[in-house]
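Quick start: read one record
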Amino acid sequence: MKVIPFYFFIASCIISTTGFAQQEAKAIEQEIIEQIWKPFKNSYEARNAEAFKSIHTDDMLRITDQGILTGPEYKENIDSWKALPDGNEITIDFAMENSNVREELAYQIGYYRVTFKKKDGAPETYFGQFHVVLKKADGIWKIAQDFDTAIVNEMPVDAVFFEKAELLDLTH
């Protein structure tokens, strides 16, 4: 009858390990929010090219429906950012669909929503899906690969996709 305590012990170990792993994953995901997604939002909306480039590795890859850019090519494009005209606004928000993390490596899939508001016009909103590979070096997370698309399974990405995912709270 020593079999039951043994199985109980094994089950307890599995549950404890799973609970610890989930807590650790949540802590890593929060660190990524602080080091990637908040700076991404802030620098993108402020059109701060230097801050935006700083959250990407030098050898990153940027993949879109139009092609692939290497880190230097992508960062050169970012250098062309201009301040928005007075009265115009741009906002970006992210909603996460899937996040798979380890201590120094992460893969995240989600959706973005970009809204342009011109001083004298109605807002225009665009949606897309992203896949990012993140790497942590010297205690800092950076984007190593960034892919996005406006089409998923032959369907245009829209508010329905975005709203089904978990909105990241980037306000704090």
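The radius of gyration is 20 Å.
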